[in-house]
Amino acid sequence: MNPPTPTSNSPEDRVPTRIVALGASAGGLEPLEQFLAHVPVPSGLAYVVVQHLDPTHKAMLAELLQRATSMPVREVTTSSRVQPNAVYVIPPNTELTVKGGLLHLAEPSEPRGMRLPIDVLFCSLAGEQGARAIGVVLSGMGSDGTLGLQAIKTQGGLTLAQEPRSAQFDSMPRTAIAAGAADVVGLASDLPARILLVTGGQPATTAAAHGAEVAAASALDSILDLLRARNKRDLTLYKPSTLRRRIERRMAIHGVKRMEEYAIFLLENPSELDLLFKEMLIGVTNFFRDPEAWDELGAVVLPELLARAGPDRHFRAWVAGCSTGEEAFSLAMVFAEAQERLASQGRHTLQIFGTDLSADAIAFARRGRYPASIAADVSAERLAHFFHEQGGGYLIDSRIREMVLFAQHDLIMDPPFTRLDLLICRNVLIYFSATLQKRILPLFHYSLLRSGVLMLGGSETVGPAQSLFPPLSSKSRLYRRGPGKAPSGAVDYPVYRRISAHAHAAAQELPMSPQTPPTPNVQALADQLLLQKFSPAAVLVNDLGDILYISGHTGQFLEPAAGKANWNIHVMARPAIRTQLAIALRRAVKERTAVEVQGLRMDGNATHQLDITVEAIDEPKALQGMVVVVFREIAAPMAEKSRRKKRAGAIDPAIAAELMRTQAELKGLREAMSASEEERQAAIEELQSTNEELQSANEELTTSKEEAQSMNEELQTINVELQSKLDDLALAQSDMQNLLNSTDIATLFLDKDLNVRRFTEQIKRIINLRDADIGRPLSDLTTTLHYPELHADAKDTLRTLAFSEKEISTSDAHWFKVRIMPYRTVANVIQGAVITFVDITAAKQLESRLRNA
């Protein structure tokens, strides 16, 4: 098992800003706004937003999100420094990664329609911040973000997903939840509070510190007991700091503040025990971690092993705590490179056993598929040589995959692998107590062959076991198995017995009490005796003839074949009965009935005959589809013996004829079987060809579907942004209309050709206008103004860009101040003219009275 890296003890000012990565696609604008609107300021976190954007369209995401939060929202530029309490948005047609506290932009590595920018960001964040990484998946189509969340979770980070029922498009969050990649599922508006609950930490104790520590220790013991009862795995001798950190993270997710309360919560929610156990097993690994150590292994250690071995030697290696398989495949690649360089010394092979306690990690490793972010750890040459690009990630090459055998294995409870040339156990021992480490190292010594090599992590040593493992290189933590012997009793497994709950400091083992042997079952013993003494020999096989179970002594009828071990009845059957047995087995499988073969003679045995019964099994269901083969040896008839005595030296014609007929039948049967085999082979080749064509067509259809889906998501995003802009424009238009109406000023808007574009209600008192007059020329309008030069003045204003202002009377004894000004857009482009009519009748009447006075 590879637990998470311990939390850094660096000063606060050296700790990089913790980043919350938000991934969204179609329908993602609304949940993004809801999320950011509920982030308190200051939160001490930085928020990086990645959304599927059209690469040819200018994004408005930063502008739209700024309305939802008081934090500054910025579009990322090259090598942007991450600052807390700020929001960073990905630009179109880019991929965004995190490294060294900086946000880096790069050209997309995949064609449009195949890009997974959310996975790229999440995976890089997982590698950069490890257990401090936080990933959030919101509304969207497809599965982008799931692999990235898995990478964050593998590193011990926090993963969250929007409640699918609240998402406009639920495919992305639903896929992440189905893959088990989301720690927390909730509404977008609730997720910030859940994040801050985890990042806020636990309040420090003051007066009751000692009592709280004792209560927490007791609660920890209770939790470990619950885990042991649930999963049959004992974590007692793991370092308490590691255990507490994993438990506290689950407590924060559920909003539980005290470990005693969490222990009660576990009792009431047994399914949480499974999640907690998986949390304990989260591994931190990547390809070629600590490159100097791998360089020394490939350049010095492996060539030395290959040179010292004979030609065509088969090597064995064990990668203990392999997590998701990166280190096991790293070893396979380094060995393949060494083998290629030293091909003249013989063709050697390597079998690698990759083991881990986590079943999920082993399942991931067996798939051999890794995200595109591994390009940061694996060189371009190795990617081209040992991987195939697939679905936005990389698939390990089959020749490397076949070198590694993955299995779930408990390092401290299960028997070790032995006769090893190389044992790699990196960054695992640091999570074990000193007592457990002292028991593990002698076990490693026992597992290795003489002069075998042990490779530990950069922060691990063999400690007091220097005599067992002299160092090859202290810097890279490579050790040679020494000639010394482990102390008597040190090599034992299970490595430790159950530790007393009250002996943590001493960590002493308790002797196991002897168990009372169970009372013998007379019926079972009698059945066993009868089966051994009186039942005929029999074997249980599958429809292909592979032997699954043997009852009685079958050595007279079956024998191991020479060469590679092969437990198939067709290979193991003795030549005298092989053909008849194969025919009977094939018939029994085809007809699902019992087939009897009688009177067979074994080689060199003329006094006994063999009867064989082959019967297909339908009940019980557990054995359905299997076949039982029963051998019964019987004495030959006495008449046969007498006839042989009388005619010793003479050949019975009947027997000779029978033999010839049998040989002819066998020859015909073999020819028929050969023809059938040729037809079957041809059919297989045709099916393979058809399958390849269908697979190729399926890949093309899948690619087209993914491209169409990606473009649809981009269009959905643009549509949402444009709809938001339209809403803003509609609101601005309403504001402008209300403003114009509230001023009570008649206003006429003209285009560049002096055609009517818009007008206010007050203009109808001066010019005869209706809604249908939009687009009519100014010269065609009838007015009450004594202003025949109106059209000429408007035209002159467009030519000179100088405004005109005149006082004009009307036919109904009113006066208006007519102002003509050019219409300028926001971009400072002249798009027409604006004519305003301000009623000055009262001023004119006052002026006239003053003059008369």
What does the model show?
With 853 residues, the chain is of the alpha/beta class. A 7-stranded parallel beta sheet has the order 3-5-2-1-8-9-10, sandwiched between helices. Strands 16-12-11-17-18-20-19 form a 7-stranded mixed beta sheet. Strands 22-21-25-24-23 form a 5-stranded antiparallel beta sheet, with helices on one face. Helix 4 (146-154) packs parallel to helix 5 (171-178), helix 7 (209-231) runs parallel beside helix 9 (259-268) and helix 11 (291-308) crosses helix 12. The termini are far apart.
**Bulk shape:** elongated
Q: Mind telling me the C-alpha Rg? A: 42 Å
What gap, in angstroms, lies between the N and C termini? 107 Å
Strand-residue proportion: 15-25%
Number of helices: 23
| Helicity range | 25-40%
Query: What is the average per-residue confidence, as pLDDT, rounded to a whole number?
Result: 79
Summarize the structure.
With 853 residues, this protein is an alpha/beta fold. The chain is built from 23 helices and 30 strands.
Keywords for this structure?
alpha/beta; 7-stranded mixed sheet; 853 residues; 23 helices; 7-stranded parallel sheet; 19% strand; 40% helix
